[in-house]
Write a structure and sequence with these properties.
The protein is of the alpha/beta class and about 375 residues long. The protein folds into 2 domains: about 5-125, P-loop containing nucleotide triphosphate hydrolases (Rossmann fold); about 135-375, no CATH class. The chain is built from 18 helices and 14 strands. It has a 9-stranded mixed β-sheet, with helices on both faces. Strand 13 (about 360) and strand 14 form a beta hairpin. The radius of gyration is 22 Å and the shape is globular. The relative contact order is 0.09. The model has no long low-confidence stretch (mean pLDDT about 95).
Length: about 375
């Protein structure tokens, strides 16, 4: 699939930075995207190094000597395996203005800590997601299978489930250790499956830690790892100065619906439509699509809740405005006190209710409802 929007984004970032980092979960298409980008650079020399290939790792035993002679574009895949390369890249781009680096990583810049410290002003980070609705236009298939290319493009739902099974096992047994994290795969696996029960709910580290027989510190560390590897979205709470009991712990969502369905034992679309987590699954899927469509940084996305009174699924700060979204799995959303309180208490510039239907209509003069596909297509 030609992901032209992302290809153009790489070129735009190279105009102002000598290093562009594409970060995203394993198997989301980073390597394929880099190969597509190569087709756009014309006659520019290109060198590609894959740090999962022992031969390429051997070439970088003396990285300064290996890289300083390269001309044009240098692509380094799976950079999280060699974070010690970041200081060397800084020296190289400072000394050679004609050299550019495209680096691909399967962890956030927080987990690849050296990048943010040694390459400030020289690197531009972009996140590559699995497939999204605007690319594939198949809502039911994307929601059930998730957006990982090999899951979405599987010949059948059974083949998709088999791929997800292998993906989860490889993630636990190989990907986490390759980040230098010494965590027993069975412990992280139990934690990950337990999070499926909390999907779309408040994350209480003490409660989950107690259930697993670990400390709240360990539970928080496990969450940070799954967040940093793009498996889980930890949505921060928003606080206002008001005399109300506001929720102050994050909400968690699986970032890929297919992974969530696999870990929840949901094997068919029929299973999904009869599952207790149907509404939470749809909410998380739509929430992720909204954030991608609006192009808002994850750090500018929040939820808001007052205990037993009112809530808002998504509050984003965009261009200085407060934009709210409530996500409802219902045929016909209606105006309620929670929506009115959210609009007034948060002083929102706009509030939209997203639901599975087709129509778009006003709930009052400030709040509108719109079907998911119509909203994404706007």
């Amino acid at each position: 699939m030609e992901r032209k929007h992302f290809q153009k984004d790489i070129g735009r970032r190279f105009k102002s930075h000598p290093i562009v980092a594409i970060l995203g979960p394993r198997q989301c298409g980073k390597t394929t995207l880099s190969k597509q980008y190569i087709q756009l650079v014309g006659k520019t020399p290109v060198t590609t190094l894959d740090l999962e290939d022992p031969r390429d790792l051997a070439k970088l035993e003396n990285p300064m000597l290996a890289l300083e002679s390269k001309k044009g574009l240098v692509i380094i895949d799976e950079i999280q395996r060699r974070p010690d390369l970041f200081p060397i890249l800084r020296v190289l781009v400072d000394n050679n203005k004609d050299q550019k680096f495209l680096i691909l990583g399967s962890a956030s810049r927080e987990l690849i800590r050296q990048g943010s410290e040694s390459l400030a002003g020289r690197i531009s980070y972009m996140e590559l997601t699995p497939f999204q609705f605007s690319e594939v236009k198949d809502f039911d298939k994307l929601w059930f299978r998730g957006g990982f290319p090999k899951s979405f493009l599987g010949a059948s739902n059974e083949e998709s489930q088999e791929w997800l099974k292998n993906y989860v096992r490889t993630f636990l047994e190989q990907d986490i250790p390759n980040l230098g994290l010494q965590i027993p795969s069975h412990s992280m696996g139990r934690f990950w499956r337990m999070l499926a029960h909390y999907h779309g709910q408040i994350f209480n580290a003490s409660e989950i830690g107690k259930s697993l027989g670990v400390s709240h510190v360990t539970a928080q560390r496990y969450l940070d790892i799954l967040t940093g590897t793009f498996m889980i979205r930890s949505l921060k709470p928003w606080f206002e100065n008001m005399k109300k009991r506001q929720v102050k712990m994050p909400k968690i969502y699986f970032r890929d619906a297919g992974v969530f369905h696999y870990l929840s034992g949901i094997q068919t679309p029929d299973d999904l439509y009869h599952h207790v987590k149907l509404g939470a699954s749809w909410e998380a899927f739509v929430l992720d699509e909204i954030i991608r469509k609006e192009g808002v940084d994850n750090n500018d996305c929040y939820f808001w809740a007052i205990h037993e009174q009112a809530k808002l699924d998504l509050l984003m700060i965009k261009n200085g405005k407060r934009i709210g979204f409530e996500i409802k799995y219902t045929d016909a959303p209606t105006l309620n006190r929670s929506l009115i309180m959210a609009f007034e208490s948060l002083k929102l510039d706009a509030l939209t209710v997203i639901y599975p239907g087709k129509d778009q209509f006003k709930l009052n003069s400030h709040i509108e409802a719109i079907g998911f596909e119509a909203f994404i297509s706007k």
